[in-house]
Amino acid sequence: MENETLHVADSMRSHIEQQERSGMTASFYCAEHGLKRSTFYYWKKKLSPSQKSNFVSLGSLRLSGRATVTFLNGVSVCFEEMPSADYLKYLIG
User: Alpha carbon of 86 to those of 56, 57, 60: distances in Å?
Assistant: First the structure.
């Protein structure tokens, strides 16, 4: 059973790499290669490098004055005064 799982993992890793190089959407690639999208996405998540945090270290923060927080999706929020850490956690959460 373990060998079969390793074979499937290797096969899916190859498909994931091919899809990324092809420029095709995952949906189109799966349709072209007879793969179930749910299976493709399952293995893509399972084989991805360990979960990376989407958080960026802010280092030292100035606790007063104007501040802009830009999220990874490109949305920016401007503050006249730096908000509390609890409020920032609320925005992210």
Answer: 17, 16, 16
